[in-house]
Amino acid sequence: MRRLQFSRVRTSQRCRGILSNLKIKTGLTPNILSRFGVCLSLKDPSIPNPEEFDEEGTEFLPIVLFGEHEKMFLALMLDRLEKDKLDPNKDLNRMMRAHLNRGVYSLVSRVRGLSDINEMIKAEQKFD
Predict the structure, then answer these.
(1) In sequence order, which residues have a C-beta less than 8 Å from that of residue 26 and are 6 or more positions away?
(2) pLDDT at residue 44, rounded to an integer
(3) How many angstroms separate the CA atoms of 111 and 41, rounded?
(4) Helices (H) and strands (E) in the chain — how many of each?
(5) Fewest CB atoms within 10 Å of the CB: 32, 77, 98, 107?
(6) pLDDT digits (tens, 9 = 90+) for 59-79
(7) How confident is the model at residue 117 (pLDDT cuts 50, 70, 90)?
(8) Beta-bridge partner residues of 59
(9) What secondary structure letter does DSSP report for 69?
């Protein structure tokens, strides 16, 4: 059995624009903002449709996107794929791309500045 791992992830063009604007507003880099987005999307029980997102945006290498947290994100994705009854061998990377894009899209309405990220983290901690 081959070891599952992430490949390069390419965002949509819209996602690239959102990440660029959020970087200006928050000072956070696109990879950090993308991590928040992935987490928001994974929390949403609906299954994102990878076909909704073009691949005309930024390309992330897994080490850049996840940093030292790559194994944690892989575990989260594998758990989510199991819940969604999807095949990790076929669906891991396309669903990561879908979750990243959907999550970043959801940041637009939630984040106007760095303090909004802090408030979002505080709100999530109340539910743990």
Answers:
(1) 33, 111, 113, 114, 116, 117
(2) 95
(3) 15
(4) 6, 2
(5) 32
(6) 999 999 999 999 999 999 999
(7) confident
(8) 10
(9) G
Report CA-CA distances (Å) from 72 to 76, 77, 90. Answer: 6, 9, 20
Q: Name the residue among 12, 41, 28 with its Cα closest to residue 99.
A: 41
**CA separation for the pair 10, 57 (Å, rounded):** 6
Once rounded to an integer, what is the mean pLDDT over residues 11-18?
A: 97
Residue 87, Cβ neighbours under 10 Å: how many? 9
CA distance 43 to 58: 23
Residue whose C-alpha is closest to residue 97's, from 12, 33, 23, 18: 12
Does the pLDDT value for residue 2 go beyond 80? no
Instruction: Dump strand ranges (E) for the chain.
Output: 9-10, 59-60
76 neighbors 43 (Cβ within 8 angstroms): no
Write out the two tokens for 106.
């959801």
